[in-house]
Structures are given as C-alpha cells and as structure tokens.
Design goal:
The structure holds two protein chains of two kinds.
Chain A (H helix, E strand, L loop, with lengths): L2 E6 L11 E5 L6 E5 L3 H9 L10 E3 L5 E3 L2 H14 L3 E5 L5 H14 L2 E4 L6 H10 E5 L1 H7 L2 E5 L3 H4 L3 H6 L15 E5 L5 H5 L2 E3 L6 H12 L7 E2 L2 E2 H12 L3 E6 L1 H4 L5 H14 L4 E6 L6 H12 L5 E2 L6 E2 L6 H6 L5 E5 L3 H4 L2 H9 L2 E4 L5 H5 L2 E3 L10 E4 L5 E4 L12 H16 L3
Parallel strand pairs in A: 6-7, 6-18, 9-10, 9-14, 10-11, 14-15, 18-19, 19-20
Antiparallel strand pairs in A: 1-2, 2-3, 4-5, 4-20, 7-16, 12-13, 16-17, 21-22
Chain B lengths: L3 E4 L2 E4 L4 E5 L2 E4 L2 E3 L8 E4 L4 E4 L1 E6 L4 H8 L27 H10 L2 E9 L4 H10 L4 E6 L5 H8 L3 H15 L5 E3 L3 H4 L20 H15 L5 E4 L9 H9 L16 E3 L7 E2 L7 E2 L1 H10 L3 E4 L7 E6 L2 H11 L3 E6 L3 E9 L5 H15 L7 E2 L13 H9 L1 H10 L3 H7 L11 H15 L17 E4 L10 H7 L4 E4 L2 E5 L2 E2 L7 E7 L4 H13 L12 H4 L3 E7 L3
Parallel strand pairs in B: 1-6, 2-7, 8-9, 9-10, 11-12, 12-13, 13-16, 16-20, 25-26
Antiparallel strand pairs in B: 1-4, 2-3, 4-5, 7-21, 14-15, 17-19, 18-19, 21-22, 22-23, 23-24
Helix pairs in contact in B: 4-5, 4-7, 5-7, 5-17, 8-9, 9-11, 11-14, 12-13, 12-16
The chains are: A alpha/beta, B alpha/beta.
The structure holds iron/sulfur cluster.
Chain lengths: 438, 569
C-alpha cells in the first residue's frame, strides 16, 4: 500500500509551490509519483531516488584520485580546513534550509569566513538597488487577487518558474480578479522571442542590453513627456501604449529576472525599474518583484539579514560583519586570490562561476557538501554527500516574495546520511574544540 | 538553580508600593521568593544602587519581515557600531535596526527582560518567530495584525462578533500570536488599491465597513475571548497635522466599556505611540501640540492605556503596517521606500527618517512625546516607548527617562533645537515643571506594562512568586544630581537577572539566558462556519495551503510558553 503525502513544498525554484502530493511506498523509503509539480520540480524529487547516488564522502588525494572516507574524516577535514584558513569562502546556501544556513553562519563567525550566496551571480544587483531606492512589492497572493497588469522583464517563467503563471500571476482567478487571465494584460520585455513572450498581449522585443533606456523612456511616457521615435529598438507609440496600459491598470506588477539584473547597467537597471514602479504609484497601485531562482536563496538573504544585517557577501574575517559588493563578493575574492579555502553548500559554482574562478577553487583546499555529483564536486577536494533538503529533510525556506514556508520531509534519506544541518552541527562542534571556545 | 540575595538596594516597585526603601530581594529556582526561603545564596551587594523588576516593553518592532527589510536595505545603519564576538556574545551591529543579537544584548543592558513585537503579519509569522528564536535573553511575544484582515472585515461587516472571535482564536493559535493588533484599520486594505481611510468613518473600499466598526468589533471579540491583553491600536490618520481629533474619536469609541478577563487587565484598549496621533493645526507650518487634550481624555477614562512613541532626535528607520502612511512619508522626504502588501491580511512600509534638531516639526514631535508622559496622572496606564525604531531606537529609553526626570535636561535639549522658540510656542513642554520619580518610571516601564499585557502574574514586580527578572542600576537616588547619570546608569545595568539567572554582571552580558516565547491559546466552542470559511479562503485566495500556514513550535520557537484562556463559556 502506497501512501500519499499532501501539501508538500517543492524545493526547486523560488516559486516554492506548496501544493504537491507525493506518493511514497509503504515503508516510506521510495518516492513513486509526484503530483502537481512541474517537470523540473518532479525531477528534483525523483532524482533523490537515483540508484547510483553517492552515499559515502569522497576525497581526492594528491594525484587526484578519489577515495572513500568516513564521515568523521570529512568533518575533521572540513573543520581543519576552515580553522587553518585565514579567510575561507563559504559559498552557496541557496538550496538548503534556514536552519542549516544559521549553523553555517556560526561557523563562519568563528573561523572568520566570508558568507556569500548565489545572489552574488543573480539578484545581488537587485539587493544593491533596493539599498539605493527601496522596493515597493507585495506577496504573490496580492498578484493573484488584485493584479490586472503583469510585466515580465528579462525573465522567462515558462521555463524557469514553470508554475508561476498558473499559480500566481496570469491564469488564476482571485478575489478581485474573477476573470483570471482574460482580465489581465501581460507585457513581456525580452530581446528573445521566448515561450513567455509568445503568450504576451504585448512583447517589447528590446535591443539587447538597453533595458535602462527603455525603462527610462517608460518613465518619460508615463509623465506624458516627449520621446524620440524609437528607444532601445521599440517604437515610441508602443512605449506610450505600454505606459498607458500600466497607468490604466488597477494593480500593476513588474516581475524581473536575470535578463536585467546581469545585463549591461546591472543594479542601475533595477534602480530605474523600481523608480518606474514608484512613479506608477502616483497614478495607481504598483509593485515589483524579483524572480528569485533557487528555492531558498531568499531565505539566505533573510537569515544573513537578521543575524548580520546584510543580505549577501558578508565578510566576517575582521571580527565584525562587513559588506562590500565588488570586494566581498565571491568572484572578486576568488579572482583576486584573496581566499585560501572554499566551502560550498547548496549551490553549484562549478557550473555557474566564470572558469577563472572555478580554476581557483580547484587549486584551493575545498569542500563541497552536496547530494549530487556536480561540476563543483568534481573540482573540490572533498565531496560530502548529504540528504536532500525538502525531500529527505524539512526546514524553513523563503519564497521569492519573502514568504517563509516549512518544507516537508517525504522520505527517509539513505541510511547513515546526514542532513546539511547535522553535518554543519558536527563541523561547528569540532571548530569550537579547535578554537577552544565554549 | 542558584539562589541569590540582592542586598541593600533602593527598591522601586509600584505593585508592592515600595518607593526607594532598602529591601532585600531573594531569588530561588528562577522565581522571586521571601528572603527566609533561601539558605545559601550568592549575595549581590546593591548598596547605593537602584533595584527594579526587569523592564517590560509593550511595543517595539524588533523581529519580522519589515524589520529585516530595514536591516537589509540599510547597510549604512551598521556604520561604526559593529561589536565583535566576545565571550557568550555573537558579533552584533546596527543602530536603528540592530541585528537580533544586538537587540537582545542592548535590551539586557537597559535592564529589560520582556519585549513584545508589535506587529506580526500572520503570513510571515514564521519569519517573526525565527527572528525571536535567535534573539537572545528576552522573553518575547508577537501581536498578529487584524485590522485589515479579510475574515475580520467580512465577519464584522455582518455583525458576527462570535465568528470573528473564533477566527481570532484560530489565528492566534496558528501563528502563535499574543494579542490583537490593529494598524490603520481599513486604511491598509484600502492601500491595496493605493487608497487610505483618513478618519474612523471612511468606508473601506469594497468591504463596506468603517474603521470605527472594525475597532469596536475587535474590542468586542477581544473581551469575548477574555484575552490577557486588550486590543492594541494604531489608529487612522497617523502623523498628520490635526489628527488629534481622529485620535479622540478613536478613544471615545470605547468610552464606558468594561474589560472581561482573569489576568488583572483593566483596560479595553491600548493606544500605541500616541505622540504621532496628537497633532493640532492643519498643515506642517502651523502644526502644534494637542497633548493636553489627549491626556485630558486619558486621565479621565481609566479603561484605556497608552504608550508614548517619544521622538529621540536620531536618524532612524520608520516601519509600520500602515502602508499608505509610509508612502506618504516617502513623498515627503524622498528617501528610499519599501512596501509589501500581504494577501488577505495587511501591508507594511519602511522609510528611513531623520529627526533633526534643526527641523521645527521634529522639535515639536520631540516635545509632544514628553508632554504626554508629564501630563499623565496615572503612570500605570502611560508607558515609555519610542515605537522603536519609528520615533527613535529603543536604546534611547534611558535618555527619554532623563528628559522626563529632569526639567534641566529637557530645557538643555530645547535650547539646542534650532527653532527652540517656535517649538516652545507650539508646545507646552517648557511650561511643565513636573519631574517624574523613579517610582513613576518603574510604573511606566514594568509594573504598568506587565499589567496592561495581562502578565502581572509573571513580570513587572518583585513580588514573591513572579519570574526572577531583576535589574540593578548603578544609580543612587539619594545622592545623584547630574541628570546625565540617569541616562548612563539606566543604559548600563550593573546586574540583570533573567528567570533567576545572571545575564548581565558588572555591565557585561555573561549569558544568553533562557528566553521564553509567549503566545495565547484562547479556546472557543467549535465553529464549523469559521472552519469552512478558513478552508475556502485558503483554497481560493491564499497562495499557501492551509496545512502550510501553521507555525511549528519545534522548528520555529524557543521555549514556547502557552497562556491558556477558556472562552467557551
Ligand atoms: S514552479 Fe518551481 S517550485 Fe513550482 S513545482 Fe516547478 S520547480 Fe517546483
């Protein structure tokens, strides 16, 4: 007899769908089916069942050969590495729960590490912009219940956040939006004709990297001031049209992704997108929201915030928390050769950092805590396999609108497998011993 | 657990009516006991020092989503104030929005042991609890906001107080909340459309109910539930010239109403940060103090309590569930603006603010906060707050005490204002020569707040049987003359005992204590209609499922402490 576990939270993307149902075998060991999730979410659950999954820590020797080691050895190596380093980089944190993040922060405090999360290569620019100009935003339910004007700027939810449009932004019928998508106007700004763009009422196919200009033009148009014939490849009339569409809405939401955060102008793009949102509030109600990628990158920023006061790239090496993007950010540290050990948990810099950074990781003492084999585990000295958070371990995660949701454990991890938090707890204990603190 | 005897101190305790007498305080098993009950105590010599119960803060914003927005979007707030890790202390920083560690340590250094988070958006209850869990030392609880909640609006529109009460009981339990908070009733829902309710009779768009009906209905539900605390109101029209009339209209809604509870609470409503609600005039040019009219009402109606919301003349970070107000503020000062509208429940905004001594209005605001306290006839009903961090950071309480206890100190500050004469003529402060006593201060910061919270069986006094939360200050009321000593001593407790444990010793934090998280479990008769309504709303309008809404005590709370109430009768 299989049993169905309901209200399961998907630990994949920032949409953090919490309505999944998972069918597990009677002994609670095997996931048989995943309902309601999109393909990527489903895959995350099923992947935990891979038969060839690594369950024992592996360490590279001098010649580069991988050997199995015990968990005790893994704890010892990690603790020694962190304690011996002058300035270890502790990177990742976006695919684990807040409890593990919290433990990691305590270790970082004791060893004088730098804690950085994946925002450093995605929405870090957004966080900087928020520090410049703030952010008028809302929860996703406000979008569902009120919003009649939706803008997707530089993002492609059809692929990256597959259930976003059906759960929150375009299709659902909410309290004041009984007609669902029929009463919503959808605008997409993207240089490519993405699957999201194809669904839009209006696709502004902007010239690559010219977001700032178009956002600026929209601000001008909203005020009714004159515009040149085209801006960023978009005809004046279209811009004026979009401005009118937004102004005439009852509740406008702008969602934006890495297409704007990591293109030319970076945080300045977001500054002006927020300024546009502010302007719209003089005419109607408007909000703006980053499409956060990893399911708990938002949580990492939150926990860092309440513990240290900054949302990413927090440098604890001087005995107090210091925050200086461009200096205390992972890639800047790696490429300047400023860190002497690398600890990775809950992300895959090997796949996403520039090759120059990855090469640096490969040269340093390094640990990767990670259930999968990834490009990062391949270059680290120690691969510590752990349970899948959100599948084999519960804990808190924050959705892209900062709403915290408690993820659920649906199956047991393979025998003897520690969770991120348990592993970090053991490292913390050992670090305390080495450092001689109570 | 260790036994302690705090000897020879000058004790101030309005509950026991001890006014500066030398009384020994004995501690055993985490509680205050009679001195005869202890055998082998560690003696703490408090000769020449002031002894009070641990401070109880009724209203501060110290944990939760908007607080963390304040932290994360103001790196500049951490300049020059970071303290490194030391002993049991984690590294800690931040001025107007300190990190959770700094919050715990700073309060402890002021001799405070209990702090209530004044506004918790229910959907973000988990976040609020996570921050409270990580805040060392302090006993805490959080007030979920109800004044713009769709369930409440709909039930009260239909005069279904019983259903509203059943829903409140459910929400308090689900979010592990402590009391009913009301912020800009109706106005924050209107803000969902960019609108507001500026008076207590402005109808809420779509919901067809007025702020007055919301507040009155919630009071009825609160009393029906027999909750320890009363409704906790931040009324409409905050921060606008001429708003004292709205405030009085709000007060009058409750005239003659009687409390119903077993916790010794005597008020039916608490009005918070009244300073922001006491303005006369009709524009910023002619704004003036109406503290006298406000306090006249408060003094004559003993079924209400209030706190001050004193402006401390600092740069700070304002944050409130009054979404439209924060938008108004950002239009005024053009500083960065954060806002979050929360589905079915509330909204919140955050804007930095500088209360400059060079700005006339700031001077007037500063004066009004103090006037309210100086005009209060019953210090057991009027409490010191800064609405942290809205009017100033909480660690300025000792400075506020200095101003309240010394006319010289007030006048010195008044003289230092750029527009001193204009402030004098728009306010009453210079004409008030009252200087509050330590006995009154003890009422305004512990005895009164504990009572208003329905927690006088735990906190606020040194009565045997209460929690052994005791603060010892290096302040000799017989010899101290310089008002600066007040600020210094009350910002640096010599000793703090929390639940019978020494947390601060000779001014240093030596323990992270054993904090409790308080919440109220009010039992009501089963109500299938409300259960059905909740299920339906979650299915159709919320974006989390009902099963994923409840706060899991094991994961999110440190030492949950349940206060039970039986409202089934
Ligand atoms: S949209 Fe994101 S959170 Fe939802 S099921 Fe797909 S991967 Fe999971």
């Amino acid at each position: 007899m299989a049993k169905i576990i309901s209200d399961v939270v998907c630990p994949f993307c920032g949409t953090l769908c919490d309505d999944l149902e998972v069918k597990v075998s009677d002994d609670g060991k095997e996931i048989l089916e995943v309902y309601n999730a999109c393909v990527i979410g489903t895959e995350k659950f099923l992947h935990s069942q891979a038969k060839d999954r690594l369950t024992v820590p592996m360490k590279q020797d001098e010649e580069g050969n991988w050997n199995e080691v015990s968990v005790d050895d893994a704890v010892e190596y990690t603790a020694q590495m962190l304690c011996n380093a002058k300035k270890p980089l502790m990177y990742g944190w976006s695919s684990t729960n807040c409890e593990a993040q919290s433990k990691g922060h305590e270790i970082a405090e004791l060893v004088g590490g730098v804690v950085d999360n994946t925002a450093t290569v995605c929405h870090g620019t957004t966080l900087i912009a928020v520090q410049d100009v703030g952010v008028p935003s809302c929860t996703l339910g406000e979008v569902k219940n009120r919003a009649d004007r939706i803008v997707f700027w530089g993002c492609n939810p059809a692929h990256a956040h597959p259930r976003h449009m059906s759960r929150y932004s375009i299709f659902p019928r909410g309290f004041f939006t009984g007609k669902g998508h029929k009463a919503r106007k959808m605008v997409v700004v993207d240089p490519r004709s993405t699957d999201t763009a194809k669904m839009a009422d209006l696709h502004m196919q902007i010239e690559q990297g010219r977001d700032y200009e178009l956002l600026s033009a929209l601000r001008v148009a909203i005020r009714g001031n004159p515009l040149p014939e085209t801006v960023a490849g978009i005809p004046r009339e279209t811009i004026q049209d979009v401005a009118e569409t937004l102004k005439s809405g009852r509740f406008v939401v702008i969602f934006f992704g890495m297409g704007v955060t990591q293109s030319l102008s970076k945080n300045h793009n977001i500054d002006i997108a927020i300024a546009l949102t502010r302007d719209l509030n003089d005419y109607t109600k408007a909000a703006i929201m980053p499409m956060r990628g990893h399911y708990n990158v938002t949580g990492s920023g939150q926990v860092l915030g309440w513990q240290f006061g900054y949302p990413f790239c927090v440098d604890l090496s001087r005995g107090f928390a210091r925050y200086n993007p461009g200096d205390s950010t992972s890639n800047d540290l790696l490429r300047r050769g400023e860190v002497d050990a690398v600890f990775v948990l809950g992300s895959d810099p090997g796949a996403h950092f520039p090759i120059s950074s990855v090469k640096k990781i490969a040269q340093l003492p390094s640990v990767c805590v990670e259930p999968h084999y990834t490009p990062t585990t391949a270059v680290c000295k120690l691969h510590m396999p752990v349970a899948f958070v959100g599948v084999e371990e519960g804990g808190c995660a924050y959705r892209m609108d900062n709403v915290p949701i408690e993820t659920r454990k649906v199956v047991e991890p393979p025998e003897g497998m520690l969770s991120d938090e348990e592993f970090l707890e053991r490292v913390l204990e050992r670090v305390k011993e080495i450092k001689g603190v109570a | 657990m260790a036994e302690y005897l705090i000897k020879n101190g000058f004790v101030f305790d309005p509950v026991l009516e001890i006014n500066g007498d030398k009384v020994d305080i004995a501690i055993k098993d985490g509680k205050i006991v009679q001195s005869t009950e202890i055998k082998n105590p560690t003696v703490v010599d408090a000769a020449g020092k002031t002894v009070m119960a641990g401070g109880v803060d009724i209203h501060a914003h110290v944990a939760g989503p908007k607080v963390n927005v304040g932290r994360n979007y103001r790196p500049e707030d951490k300049l020059f104030n970071y303290e490194p890790r030391k002993g049991v202390k984690r590294m800690a920083g931040g001025f107007s929005v300190p990190t959770v560690f700094r919050t715990g340590y700073k309060y402890a250094q002021m001799g405070y042991t209990t702090v209530m988070e004044a506004a918790m958006p229910p959907l973000y209850a988990r976040h609020t609890h996570e921050e409270m869990r990580d805040t060392p030392i302090l006993d805490q609880g959080a007030y979920p906001v109800f004044g713009n909640n769709w369930f409440v609006l709909e039930y009260l529109k239909n005069h279904e107080v019983e259903n509203a009460a059943a829903y409140i009981s459910w929400l308090l339990r689900t979010t592990r909340g402590y009391a009913i908070k009301i912020v800009n009733p109706g106005g924050t829902e209107a803000w969902g459309w960019g609108l507001n309710c500026n008076s207590i009779h402005d109808p809420v768009p779509y919901f067809d109910i007025t702020p007055a009906q919301i507040m009155k209905g919630l009071m009825d539900a609160n009393e029906a539930l027999r909750l320890p605390h009363s409704i906790h109101i931040h009324t409409n029209n905050l921060g606008n010239p001429g708003n004292y009339e709205t405030t009085l209209d709000t007060f009058k809604l409750f005239q003659g109403e009687k409390p119903n509870n077993d916790f010794g609470r005597e008020q039916v409503m608490h009005h918070t940060h009244v300073q922001f609600h006491s303005y006369g005039g009709d524009n910023w040019g002619n704004v003036e103090s109406k503290a006298d009219e406000i306090m006249n009402y408060v003094n004559n109606n003993d079924n209400m309590t209030m706190d001050l919301g004193c402006v401390t003349l600092d740069e700070t970070t304002t944050m409130t569930a009054d979404g439209p107000f924060e938008h108004h503020l950002t239009e005024l000062n053009h500083l960065k603006w954060a806002n979050t509208d929360v589905e079915l429940e509330t909204a919140a905004g955050v804007v930095p603010y500088i209360y400059s001594p060079n700005v006339k209005v700031c001077g007037i605001q500063w004066a009004i906060g103090l006037e309210l306290a100086l005009l209060a006839k019953d210090p057991m009903r009027v409490f010191i707050t800064t609405d942290h961090p809205n009017a100033g950071p909480f660690f300025r309480y000792p400075r506020v005490m200095k101003w309240l206890m010394s006319q010289d100190a007030r006048e010195a500050q008044m003289d230092a204002l750029k527009w001193a004469e204009k402030v004098r003529s728009a306010t009453l402060l210079s004409g008030l020569d009252r200087e509050l006593t330590l006995y009154e201060i003890a009422a305004m910061t512990r005895a009164g707040t504990a009572k208003a919270l329905g927690l006088s069986h735990m906190y606020g006094s040194l009565k045997p049987g209460l929690e052994a939360d005791v603060a010892v200050y290096d302040y000799n009321p017989e010899t101290a003359e310089d008002p600066e000593l007040i600020e210094k001593a009350f910002g640096n407790a010599a000793y703090l005992f929390k639940g019978g444990e020494i947390v601060v010793k000779e001014g240093e934090v030596v323990s992270n204590g054993n904090k409790k998280t308080l919440w109220v479990d009010a039992k009501v008769a089963e109500n299938p209609q409300v259960q059905r309504d909740v299920a339906e709303k979650f299915l159709r309008y919320y974006t989390v499922t009902q099963a994923n809404y409840e706060v899991n005590e094991k994961v999110f709370m440190k030492n949950p402490y349940r206060i039970e109430v039986d409202a089934t009768q």
